[in-house]
């Protein structure tokens, strides 16, 4: 009999198809009544598949008494309750990969898109307006300043790309980086005042939640742009909506939101915002790699072998 597994969230379709071939799969994310499904299958589920973003908490583990393994599609950063898993002897496996360059790549693409009005002028052409109207004009990147919030691996990738576009770079973080020569600002509002485009790349922590406040946006000013490829709650979402609606900033390009996949409807009619469905690491090659590793982790466990990609030893 095939092992029964619970899939918590939507994952890459070819990976899900392979899971459904090899296991008895219960899809929690499609259930009309998730609680009822959990009760129905709880006595038989031996494995669970989640995502790094959604994770797996203690309550779900306690609801599955026969749970042996949690296989994460992506690497959880604090979203899986590792302590609870250790207490119960549940294996936590993940799919380590290098996505920093991909996220930096998208951040720069979003900067180009919002500053050069790529999406707005695309809509202009599709609406048949070019024959009778002049298109809206953006601003060039050459000679402008890119302010980066957190100069980690993603931030450094953004910096290299911004320089290639002829931008100067400065940054903010908890401390100065001794191995770079970019100007450092300990005051985030001062960085925002200096920047033409403020790119947010920091992790979500208690210290960074709500870091981009109304005051920071006001410092960025009516000619400044915001790009967020970090996490939604790093930016005060209501303050951003107000800043965009009242044109306190020139525009924003957002790959992340507070309550994904729900996006504030107030953003939809605005022409000075670019919206993406959290695509920072979403390329076919990364999805294929993660899918292979999820399947390898589950296959190894259910054949009595150590998982190849454990999150914890």
How would you portray this structure in words?
The chain is an alpha/beta fold and 313 residues long. The chain folds into two domains: 4-97 and 285-302, 3-Layer(aba) Sandwich (Rossmann fold), CATH 3.40.50.720; 100-275, NAD(P)-binding Rossmann-like Domain (Rossmann fold, 3-Layer(aba) Sandwich), CATH 3.40.50. Helix content is 35%, strand content 15%. The chain is built from eleven helices and eleven strands. Strands 7-6-8-9-10-11 form a six-stranded parallel sheet, with helices on both faces. A five-stranded parallel sheet has the order 2-1-3-4-5, with helices on both faces. Helix 10 links the parallel strand 9 (225-228) and strand 10 (251-254). Helix 8 runs parallel beside helix 9. The model has no long low-confidence stretch (mean pLDDT 96).
């Amino acid at each position: 009999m095939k092992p029964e597994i619970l899939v918590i969230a939507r994952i890459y379709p070819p990976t899900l198809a392979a899971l459904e071939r090899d296991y008895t799969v219960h899809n929690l994310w499609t259930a009309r009544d998730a609680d009822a499904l959990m009760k129905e299958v709880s006595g038989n589920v031996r494995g669970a598949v989640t995502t790094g973003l959604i994770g797996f908490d203690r309550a779900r583990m306690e609801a599955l008494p026969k749970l042996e393994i949690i296989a994460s599609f992506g690497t959880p950063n604090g979203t899986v309750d590792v302590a609870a898993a250790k207490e119960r002897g549940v294996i936590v496996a993940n799919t380590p990969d290098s996505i920093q360059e991909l996220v930096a790549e998208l951040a720069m693409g979003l900067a180009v898109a919002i500053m050069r009005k790529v999406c707005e002028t695309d809509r202009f052409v599709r609406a048949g307006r070019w024959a009778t109207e002049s298109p809206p004009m953006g601003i060039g990147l050459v000679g402008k300043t890119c302010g980066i919030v957190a100069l980690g691996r993603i931030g450094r990738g953004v910096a290299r790309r911004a320089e290639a576009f002829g931008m100067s770079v400065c940054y903010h973080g908890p401390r100065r980086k001794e191995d770079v020569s970019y100007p450092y600002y300990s005051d985030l509002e001062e960085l925002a005042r200096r920047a033409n485009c403020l790119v947010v790349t920091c992790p979500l922590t208690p210290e960074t939640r709500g870091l981009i406040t109304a005051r920071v946006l006001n410092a960025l000013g009516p000619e400044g742009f915001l790009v967020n490829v970090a996490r939604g709650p790093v930016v005060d979402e209501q303050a951003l909506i107000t800043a965009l609606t009242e044109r306190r900033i020139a525009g924003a390009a957002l790959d992340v939101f507070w309550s994904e996949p729900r996006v504030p409807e107030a953003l939809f009619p605005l022409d000075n915002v670019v919206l993406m469905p959290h695509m920072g690491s979403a390329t076919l090659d990364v999805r294929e790699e993660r899918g292979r590793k999820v399947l390898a982790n589950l296959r190894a466990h259910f054949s009595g072998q150590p998982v190849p990609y454990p999150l914890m030893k």
